[in-house]
Design a protein that fits this description.
Strand order of the largest sheet: 1-2-7-4-5-8
Largest sheet: 6 strands, antiparallel
Low-confidence stretches: none
Order of helices and strands: HEEEEEEEHEHHHHHHHHHH
Number of strands: 8
Helix content: 40-55%
Strand content: 15-25%
């Protein structure tokens, strides 16, 4: 189960999540395709703490682009169905949008408005298997492939540095290791990612904390707070509660 899916042990019993690598042509822009399917006797609501990625989601009513969502996202699943998503690399949607990705943050955009195409529910409405769904989704994107943008690779590397190093807890740390000024990083992230580098750092820490709780076994919250760079456990608890919706102890127990 992907990081950010809260209470992922329960989620595994309610829906199936599969990821599929993109074609080589889409690889510079797209991290992976994801497919969620479910068959439920009773409705189930799943909460997700999103990553700094833009998603293109194909649903029965048509397709939408979801900018980076800074709060928790709740999706209620009922009956039987499936959804196909395209997860762009951090920064990977900028060449497709042709403008600041921050202008799309916490917003959605209908694909009919973005690309001017109709029938965007087709990839999932007519598909008989996962491979067909992915092929139909890529058929929407490949004819509109933008020119390569070397800045996308730079942004991917910067976000990768954040997610690979829990000791990187401040934007000025990232500025030192990258050789880009703090102001330069802020401008670059708002233009390409949609949120600032501080948000990306804080969100990664919350994903790590929730993953530790979901892993099972006792959690040394004071030690984890120190490991994640918080000045004290109280600061960590406040930030965890704001992001996850409940305190660390209650989330672990729940």
């Amino acid at each position: 189960m992907a990081r950010g899916v809260l209470d992922e042990r329960t989620g595994r019993t309610k829906f199936r999540l599969r990821t599929v690598a993109p074609s080589a042509a889409l690889g510079p822009f797209v991290e992976y395709h994801w497919i969620v399917s479910w068959d439920l006797a009773e409705p189930f609501s799943q909460q997700v703490v999103p990553h700094p990625n833009v998603h293109l989601v194909f649903e029965p009513g048509g397709a939408k682009v979801y900018g980076v969502l800074r709060g928790r996202f709740t999706r209620t699943l009922a009956g039987r169905g499936h959804v196909l998503g395209v997860r762009f690399h951090p920064g990977g949607f900028r060449p497709w949008l042709g403008g600041r990705v921050a202008d799309l943050t916490d917003r959605t955009l209908a694909v009919t408005d973005w690309l001017g195409v109709e029938g965007t529910e087709k990839p999932i409405a007519d598909a008989t298997d996962d491979a067909t769904m992915v092929a139909e989704a890529e058929a929407v994107l490949l004819p509109r492939l933008p020119a390569p943008d070397p800045v996308v690779d730079q942004v991917r590397e910067l976000v990768g540095q954040i997610t690979a190093d829990l000791a990187l807890t401040r934007v000025d740390h990232l500025a030192r290791v990258s050789g880009i000024t703090v102001r330069g990083l802020q401008r670059l992230f708002n233009e390409y990612v949609g949120v600032g580098p501080k948000w990306v750092i804080r969100r990664h820490r919350m994903h790590e904390a929730a993953a530790r709780a979901d892993a099972g076994g006792p959690v040394d919250w004071a030690g984890l707070a120190a490991e994640l760079g918080y000045s004290d456990q109280a600061h960590f608890t406040r930030e965890f509660t704001a992001a996850i919706g409940t305190s660390p102890g209650r989330y672990r127990a729940g």
